[in-house]
Specification:
8-stranded mixed β-sheet, alpha/beta
């Protein structure tokens, strides 16, 4: 009697990963003994933004949070954000971008009170992320907020045991080479910085070429450096990588599976399927989407903001936010 060998690739769905985070979120929510209020602003007709808002509403209801979606004209959004900043009943604010598809969107990101910015897009949080500053206070009691989608991918990698918990916190990706196909300012570049700051050698790929993010030989540096890899393409970095993460928008892009290292971990964070079904012939683990993890991370960030509500002293602010 012959036995078929087990499938070589394990497909891991976002819902399974989100459940482990839901438990943590539920435990933290019980400690504050109230339902935090998240306000979402929708000022466009983008179907993806509407879907994200619907997911946010559903996930808030299922996990004991309050959610208020406010659909406004984009010309009124600035005033609405400022009003929500002053509203003491509002714990967190999210804006569903794009709004103007210009630098004006960046201005709107900076309007949100840093104490209500669940997306981690405020200058203070972005500065801390790139400088590898993980706390807001000198006592290391108040964690800095990280952008939701990059943090969701970190949580996926933790769930998959790519992070080595034997190593010290902050070094747990040492020894891993990771290719990220996307270098947007919203997801790709922040993700490359986060993973490199955790010890990985990261190859960040976009249409302009390849950049390498690392903390140097032996990860001796406190934060990552970026080096241009002149002339490099996917053909150079993918065969070196034990993790490949792709988030290219549009149906036209299909990742060249033939370049994958045998047994690589593959993660797709685009709303389109970057990997074809043949990825299962090369990858050991494949995560086809991360949306449900991103929404739970959003709630996790909201709880962090509520827990961080204690005002920082002037001394702490000057140490952890030197350019403010």
């Amino acid at each position: 009697m012959t036995h078929n060998p087990p499938a070589s690739c394990k497909v891991v769905l976002a819902g399974s990963i989100a459940k482990s985070l839901q438990l943590e979120v539920g435990q933290d929510l019980a400690k504050i003994n109230r339902k935090p209020l998240l306000v979402g602003f929708l000022a466009n007709k983008d179907p993806a933004a509407q879907l994200y808002a619907d997911w946010t509403n559903k996930t808030c209801e299922e996990n004991g949070f309050q959610f208020s979606l406010r659909e406004v004209d984009r010309e009124d959004l600035e005033g609405c954000i400022l009003a929500a900043n002053e509203d003491t009943t509002v714990d967190g604010i999210i804006v569903y971008y794009p709004i103007f598809n210009s630098r004006q969107d960046q201005y709107l990101q900076q309007l949100i009170d840093v104490g209500k910015d669940v997306e981690g897009l405020s200058h203070r949080y972005v500065f801390n992320m790139y400088q590898n500053i993980r706390f807001l206070d000198q006592q290391k009691l108040q964690k800095s907020i990280l952008p939701c989608t990059p943090l969701a991918i970190v949580k996926v990698l933790e769930y998959l045991k790519v992070y080595n918990t034997i190593l010290p916190y902050g070094n747990r990706l040492f020894g891993h080479s990771i290719t990220i196909v996307n270098r947007s300012e919203v997801v790709g570049r922040p993700l490359a910085a986060l993973l490199a700051n955790d010890g990985a050698c990261v190859y960040s790929v976009d249409v302009t070429g390849v950049q390498q993010f690392t903390r140097g030989e032996g990860i001796k540096k406190s934060r990552h450096d970026v080096v241009e890899k002149d002339g490099w393409t996917l053909e150079n970095c993918v065969p070196l990588s034990d993790v490949v993460i792709s988030g290219v928008p549009g149906e036209a892009f299909k990742f060249p599976t033939k370049l994958l290292k045998e047994g690589a971990v593959c993660i797709n964070f685009s709303t389109d399927k970057n990997f074809g079904p043949e990825v299962k012939d090369k990858a050991s683990i494949y995560v086809p989407a991360i949306g449900k993890v991103t929404i739970i991370v959003l709630l996790r960030n909201l709880l962090r903001i509520v827990q961080n509500r204690k005002p920082l002293s002037n001394e702490d602010s000057s140490i952890c936010n030197p350019i403010q």
